[in-house]
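Posting this for the archive.
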Amino acid sequence: MQSSTKFLLGIVIGIVLLVIITFAVVLLRPEPTYQDDTTPDGAAHNYLLAIQNKDYDRAFTYIPEQYRYPENADDMAVTIRKNSWAFDTDGDFSLAVESTRMQGDDKAVVTMRKTTFYNSGLMGSSQSSRTFTLDMILEDGMWKVSDGDSYWSSSCWG
């Protein structure tokens, strides 16, 4: 074999291995799971995960009763579809709690980080991150979302 053929074969094998490793990393990435929601950050995480999973029955439990709308999980699903820009659930992304700031015994502000992953071809990928906050209140012993920069319909729920 000529040296240029060996070199080209080495490049092709390297690319194939890189693609296999990339697929393995993506496919083996652990699925997000629900956390203990007796803390404000756990409840915030669970609220967002329920919306991401389209589990509106569970997501609805994190809306305080003092808000009259949505009246039920079905109304919540309709509101999320109508205000999809506020819930930003399209694309490949991950959500993580960055910090929690308590404001007394019954209020907290949870800062979340959303990391969005972009793929532009075989070798092109990138990501971007942004933070947003969810205001949490303790209602009947359960942490609930009372307002938010994202994943919240302020025109309807607040």
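The chain has six helices and four strands. The helical segments are 3-27, 40-52, 56-60, 73-82, 84-87, 154-157.
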